Amino acid sequence: MDTIIRNGLVSGPTGPESYDILIVGGKIKAVGTDLDPEGREVIDARGCLVVPGGVDVHTHFDLQAGTHRAADDFLTGTVAAACGGTTTIVDHMAFGPKGCSLRHQEEAYHGLADKKAVIDYGFHGVLQHVDDKVLRDLQEMAMDGIPSFKAYMTYDFRLSDKDILRVMETVKKAGGVLAVHAEEHDKIENLRKTFVEEGKTEAIYHAMSRPNQTESEAVGRLIRLSERAGWPNLYLVHISARESLEEVRRARGKGAMNIFVETCTQYLMLTEDRYSLKDGESLKYVMSPPLRKQEDIDALWKGIADGEVQVVGTDHCPFFFEEKLMFGSGDFTKCPNGGPGAEERMRLLFSEGVMKQRISLQRFIEVTSLNPARIMGLYPEKGTLEPGADADICIINPERSGTFSAETLHGAAGYTLYEGLEYTGEVELVMQRGKVIVKDGVFLGQRGDGRYLKRRVPSV
Ligand code: URP
Ligand code: ZN
Ligand code: ZN
């Protein structure tokens, strides 16, 4: 049956305006006033904001990192994301066996996701070494549904500058997007080694071994490589340091408008004070890059408001607390890196951003769905409520408030980085391709109902 969402507040050129949305065959058919409800299922959204379902292009479901495996797989992770108003994810595949082809992980990830994901999903290709075959595969994959690729400047499979440059040149040719985890590996390793030798093994030294400059210098280096490669589409993942934004500003000043900045909810909300929590609680916040200072948080919010930051993702990558404690208690360098966030993202951004008037509703939509969809080749099916788009919809009631608690969230790790934090604006209903998958916090979707998304080369 066709559905009509009536009287919801939709973002318009001059602010939210009341509209009806007609959904036919899982697609948005029309957005207008006084659409005829006769013979259609009616959802009354009066007083609520109706926004595109969230698009989170930075998750790590089922990640195998060395001997550690992320707590959420594609079932629990996508259920959590859905309950928080997200209807599409693009997951960063994990590294495969040493020397494996670019295609190897793609196949493996279909095995992990296809019968489990409850929302629509895609994968970023992961680069762990570079040779002619990898570069040929990259070009082929870019034309075959995977136009974005991820490179690391730190960790075991980091790429050299020479290899990053080769990848950039190929990505430029293919028209894809290169996503990079930018941190100065050698500087970080030296600091880590020194701290451990000095017996400084508590969680705060995780942050101190990765100071702001280890991120911003890597961003600067990357931008110089990018210039040499003729400015391919460059996507900076999980930017946390205010100095990194200055690097990007300088590059954009030279006309490089296809550098995209992603930050993540934790870098907008939490400071490094968390590393002083007792009883091992600090280890929940061990992630890379680490949490920073209030000045960085302020700069990132301003960056969103000004349009300098295009995307807010989550880097959702939680490990069980017991595992963090077991490995990280005596030595922060052994603690598995990462935390949860996919379920909290939309409400956090809405409450802390829109309700606290740091950002407009339109900006909220841009960073949570429209921009990630555009940059990652999912627009116009995703990220918008325009006619023709998939009816992926999130209805938020700004009159309702709540408190984040592991008790009511759905992730497998069993904790949230925001325990006890109050928010204003509740996700009341989530729809994927016209089907209600979440209502009043209850998941109504089906395992395996998420569709694999063959993405296109973005036109950004
Ligand atoms: O600490 C983090 N961020 N873990 C996930 C992997 C990554 O670097 O994005
Ligand atoms: Zn990363
Ligand atoms: Zn990540």
From TrEMBL:
CDD domains the record matches: D-HYD (cd01314)
Record's keyword terms, sorted: Hydrolase, Metal-binding
Cofactor needs: Zn(2+)
PTM field: Carbamylation allows a single lysine to coordinate two divalent metal cations.
Gene Ontology molecular function, alphabetical: hydrolase activity, acting on carbon-nitrogen (but not peptide) bonds, in cyclic amides; metal ion binding
Family matches, as Pfam families: Amidohydro_1
Domain Amidohydrolase-related per the UniProt entry, residue ranges: 49-436
Protein name, entry field: Phenylhydantoinase
NCBIfam families: D-hydantoinase
Keyword field contains Transmembrane: no
Enzyme class: hydrolase
EC number per UniProt: 3.5.2.-
InterPro entries in UniProt: Amidohydro-rel, Hydantoinase/dihydroPyrase, Metal-dep_hydrolase_composite, Metal_Hydrolase, Metallo-dep_Hydrolases_sf
N6-carboxylysine, modified sites: K150
Taxonomic lineage from the root: Bacteria, Bacillati, Bacillota, Clostridia, Eubacteriales
Organism the protein comes from: Youngiibacter fragilis 232.1
Family note: Belongs to the metallo-dependent hydrolases superfamily. Hydantoinase/dihydropyrimidinase family.
